[in-house]
């Protein structure tokens, strides 16, 4: 660049660096800006979804009335003005939960306090007004009394459901397991049918109550109360009440299973599957990774061959994860799994037991995938330990095993931990290989339960990353699924960020402790 | 007493025996683990080979030329490249040409590198030479975190947020591309005209942070300029203009979107390695140039960069290896249409994405299955070779730095 950046007649420091220096600075700020935008977008959309925002009631210029939550606003195609998308719910009445409204057509917009939002087990949300409460026995109520009765009944249902779940877990399932194990035992069979009858009675006690609801445009519908999960008056709630409702929403997202084709409900099975798979994987990968690192760094002759192997191992970290998935499918699932099925599970063939993707194969594949990470990190830790430590131990008469197990490995423990955490962080975010070796869109049974052998390695499992992919691209109504996808993505990113931060912190700690020590 | 004299000896024997046993076990285990990892390549090669063996009739079902050269198909006038593993009933056999997949893979990687390399190298140069130490100590872990962002999240944002946004704001995207570089340079020019006190408040070493609001300002300016630019230059709508004048179709999920998302994912990798190479150059070299009156940018361009060039090159190669193998981003953001054209606004289908979609459905042992394994083998070989080359270059470079550092 021939043109200078100095003011004429000024030649003192700092001198101009020319445009390229600024472009370099700009590229780093742009990267930071994009990263910040990504995180803010995830946080805002993911957490905002649980906020019970106000519901608007609109009267349009053509006389129609509708109630819903505004989602977004875009310019109308081919004309001036804008249109707004409302989430109006009521899929059972309208067939769709979305309504586009041109902004110019809105005559009045109000936020009446009596609008009710019902969260239902089927059909999604209902938005409208409560007209009447019609219990199975007792008198029909209207107005505020109906609302009170509904709330009381729903709290009652909550307790009933908990009682049923307790009964199933503590009594029914053990009894059924016992029966399966011992064959026909009349006493246990009688106990089982008694419990089943009791549960049926409890379910029946919950059924029968109805509420009469009215949508904003005046259509009436009767809803059974046991279908309703939550009932709220969002326009009548203060900030405090909304905050409580928001916390409740976040908690239910984390603790419940998905509903209506993964578009609603929570992600608990996916969290559980991810954590269980990653834990199994780290159990597999840590000992083998440390073993290989100790061999490479402490036992093997440090010659050309070892150097080549070291480079090879390091490069395996750069091999695409999908290739590991292919290996897992070919060797573990079709090879080992097929063989295991022939030997031990012949009675259930041709439906495969281990010969299809499952928890075990997924953990093994990811363990292979993260093995280079653990080996490299552990080796780095081992090579930071000065030779005088090893020589001191040997000079005092320790054998090599004692030197390794009492001096070297304890000193390298933080490095191993760092390697393990990095491996976990990498594995938690991998989706592509899992698509080949055992992840499922919806796994009704978690792989860990009270049935022998408790941990079901052959079962398919749900995974947060795959849940994002599947919900965002294979659900019927992507628009409706988006908020949950954002929330799931935020959760996954948070988990991975926390894991990585821990690894960075540990490594920093390790460097400052052994930083002054060098091999020479 | 026999006990006191024999027991230390016995204990020593025992200890030595245990030691030998443990060493043997560690050796066996270490070699076993390493062999297991290395077995991936062998497994893929063994599974792929039968594809090229002649079958019972003496004819090999597939040959290299049928995979990589245009083939004549009934109903088409001239030989073409097609990847259509599953056809509707009534069609003659599946069409296996790996060329479109290889093309898609390389096209996606090329766009990703076109976006990641300038960003990463600029960032590396800035943080190695200009940035204040304190900021750099915080920035490196931040970008490491960026590297750890899962591909599925980046892909989801690219496919469901960026793609629709760019489809609606194509003009704004182009304006941003045109406006940002000169805008940043203009920012630098304005900065050098600031009064001295204010300039000390905004030192060059922290410009990575204080340029962010400036970028947002430029963004706002671009949003204001975009309709005007589109109206004046492209007759109101960029997309119709592209279709009319250049004959380019616009697919919502296209190579540019993939390139942007994957560039974002690959950039931290390239940055970290290139920054290591640049800041590893012995200080004496750069200081000598500065002492002779070079500006810092001249020092970088004429002294530091030539010394670190192999390291920077290997950083780019490792980035290329990642971009070629990245699966989820391409799977989500590319539209997965096996096309072979130069239009960056059209979809593509990469090998990795094909494997992820088709392998679970392919019958084990069939030609489709083996072809997908061949694609995996190609990916494996490509990344392994590229990474090995990069690693060898980096090892050489490190040795050179040590020599340079010693002589200085």
In short:
The complex is a heterodimer of chains A (520) and B (408). Chain A has 520 residues and is α+β, with helices and mostly antiparallel strands.
Structure in words:
The complex is a heterodimer of chains A (about 525) and B (about 400). Chain A has helices at about 20-50, 90-95, 145-180, 185-205, 240-255, 270-300, 305-315, 320-345, 360-385, 385-395, 400-430, 430-435, 465-475, 480-515; strands at about 55-60, 65-75, 80-85, 100, 105-110, 115-120, 125-135, 140, 210-215, 220-225, 230, 260, 265. In chain A, the strands form three sheets. In chain A, strands 6, 7, 8, 9, 10 and 11 form a six-stranded antiparallel sheet that branches. Chain A has a five-stranded antiparallel sheet with strand order 4-3-2-1-5, with no helix packed on it. A two-stranded antiparallel ribbon of chain A has the order 12-13. With about 525 residues, chain A is an alpha+beta fold. Mean pLDDT of chain A is about 80; it is low at about 1-15 and about 515-520. In chain A, strand 2 (about 65-75) and strand 3 form a beta hairpin. The longest helix of chain B has about 45 residues, at about 1-50. Classes of the chains: A alpha+beta (about 525), B mainly alpha (about 400). Chains A and B meet through helix 1, helix 6, helix 7, helix 8 and helix 9 of A and helix 1, helix 3, helix 4, helix 5 and helix 6 of B.
